[in-house]
Specification:
Length: about 260
């Protein structure tokens, strides 16, 4: 309970700053992220996850007592205690240390989120309207519906800052460029890159450990239906907005191959 309450309070302050400007919309059509390479298929031994439960895929677990998760050492976290999938911690530390040698600090802002944390964040932003799908679509610029967030899997990390203006600073630009140049060497990819036709706005801070996340995405598509996406304000709009097709699978197309 303490873990959830802490996550709720701080995640709200983190996510409240992600509002896109016209300038950012224009930038979504240029500077595509060169994220995907042959690294994942040629150099990485993919873990075997034969049967991931629907509860896990939907974020309805507690990482504190789930054997699939480990606590991230505090030196790698910017704000609070974080949990991550057990097979993601070591490659992240390797990437962190490589970046640190180049003067880049890849501190984690957010890693795993439960369904309840995502629900709290969503319900804070969603409001009743005569156009519920329109409201939901605005919230979906940067925030996933509960049960559809990749953060539920423990394979995702938000790095450095979720504030758009950070990436306009010299520190933000150099850090992001380092990730573009090197993150794939460690199995991490920017899933919400620029230039996509569907889904969330570009997120330069959100990086996914693809060797694990790729299998989770596959099983999500096989097991989760719109009946499973429920229990929060505006959940009835999920099917209309094609949340699974356009948002869960609305990632860098090279990573869907």
């Amino acid at each position: 309970m303490q873990y959830i309450l802490i996550n709720i309070l701080i995640l709200f302050s983190i996510c409240s700053c992600s509002e896109i400007s016209k300038k950012d919309e224009a930038q979504n059509n240029k500077n595509p992220n060169i994220s995907a390479s042959d690294t994942i298929t040629q150099d990485t031994v993919l873990p075997n996850y034969p049967d991931i439960s629907k509860e896990y895929l939907l974020g309805k677990i507690n990482p504190e007592n789930d054997s699939m998760f480990v606590e991230i050492p505090s030196k790698y976290c910017i704000m609070r205690k974080e949990y991550i999938h057990k097979d993601v911690l070591e490659p992240f530390i390797m990437m962190y240390e490589a970046a640190e040698k180049d003067g880049i600090r890849l501190g984690i802002v957010s890693a795993h989120r439960t369904f309840e944390t995502q629900k709290w964040l969503w319900n804070q932003r969603y409001y009743n309207s005569s156009n519920p799908a329109g409201v939901a679509k605005v919230v979906l610029n940067y925030l996933a519906m509960p049960g559809t967030s990749r953060h539920h899997w423990g394979t995702e990390v938000d790095l450095m800052s979720t504030k758009l203006n950070f990436y306009e600073t010299s520190q933000g630009e150099s850090s992001y460029q380092w990730l573009i140049d090197h993150a794939a060497e460690f199995g991490f990819y920017q899933v919400y890159n620029a230039g996509r036709l569907y889904g969330y706005n570009e997120e330069k801070w959100h990086w996914s450990y693809m060797p694990v996340a790729k299998e989770f995405l596959k099983q999500y598509g096989e097991k989760i239906t719109y009946e499973d996406i429920s229990g929060f304000n505006g959940c009835e709009t999920a099917k209309e907005l094609m949340i699974i097709e356009n948002y869960v699978f609305g990632i860098d197309t090279l990573l869907l191959k």
